[in-house]
Design goal:
The complex is a heterodimer of chains A (about 170) and B (about 100).
Chain A: H1 2-21, H2 25-45, H3 49-73, H4 77-81, H5 89-109, H6 126-134, H7 138-159
Chain B: H1 4-24, H2 28-53, H3 59-89
Helix pairs in contact in B: 1-2, 2-3
The chains are: A mainly alpha (about 170), B mainly alpha (about 100).
């Protein structure tokens, strides 16, 4: 169990680093697919079966295909020759490690109450999530559907051919 | 035994990888990918807290579903904006998208 977690974590971190450092954007999209699948595997380890399926369906099947389309519709060949990192990478690295240091120190001091997790006590979550979404979380559910409608309209609006005024 | 802190440290490292990507990528699609990494770090946190602190409840996973949905909406709008920018300015590098600076 521990070995599985460490393997998944190692692959996840490696592919995420490749996503942000890879020169070709299409290659980093493929590494992003690996990273998102590893997050789905982490969800499986955390007994979240429905969420793992949603992760694969929506991220790897939906968002990643959208990203790949956007990469292919924009220029790929000019991206390969130039450097993909701007000149502020050293301050960014320092800022990132500062944030990580702050987070790790605060995690070290934190006292999260870990309830006893029963081993091998798995029960499927899909039915409970369904009851939650249409029961206590009904209002956020409707609001999110409104947000999705708005983003649909916005995507159509932005991708429409613009009239040249003047 | 893998504890809650393992997951929290993992998602913290994932978060700073995403922040580093947002700060350093020149390509705007690369920035969107880094934002997706940050969303995933958040989701790992939510599900790990749900699993370790309240194993009987399901609220963390329900919230993670909302995060995933909003990430999808963000990706759709962001990528259509990216394509509109590319159609008008013929570039995706963020330092060249500076027509608002005057």
């Amino acid at each position: 169990m521990d070995l599985v977690f460490y393997l998944i974590a190692l692959l996840l971190l490696f592919s995420s680093v490749m996503v942000v450092t890879q020169k070709s954007v299409f290659t980093s999209a493929l590494y992003l697919a690996v990273a998102l699948s590893m997050v789905a595997a982490l969800f499986v380890l955390l007994n979240a079966d429905f969420l793992a399926a949603v992760q694969i369906l929506l991220y790897v099947g939906g968002i990643l295909v959208l990203l790949a389309f956007a990469v292919m519709l924009s220029s790929v060949e000019q991206a390969k020759r130039e450097t993909q990192v701007n000149e502020q990478w050293l301050p960014s690295l320092i800022i990132s490690f500062g944030i990580l240091l702050v987070l790790l120190v605060s995690l070290k001091r934190s006292l999260f109450l870990e309830a006893g997790v029963q081993k091998n006590h798995f029960y499927p979550t899909t039915e409970k999530i369904g009851h939650l979404l249409l029961g206590e979380l009904a209002l956020p559910f409707e609001v999110v559907s409104l947000v999705l409608l708005a983003s649909l309209v916005g995507a159509i609006l932005f991708s429409k051919k613009e009239k040249i005024d003047g | 035994m893998v504890s809650l802190h393992h997951y929290l440290v993992l998602s913290a490292i994932l978060l700073i990888i995403g922040i580093y990507g947002v700060l350093t990528r020149r390509n705007i699609i690369g920035i969107l990918m880094s934002i997706e990494i940050i969303f995933n770090a958040t989701n790992i946190n939510l599900v790990a807290f749900n699993h370790y602190c309240y194993p009987r409840a399901i609220w963390g996973q329900g919230f993670a579903i909302f995060v995933i949905t909003l990430a999808a909406a963000e990706a759709v709008v962001g990528l259509s904006l990216v394509l509109a920018i590319y159609r008008n300015l013929k570039t995706l590098y963020v330092e060249r998208i500076n027509i608002l600076k005057g």
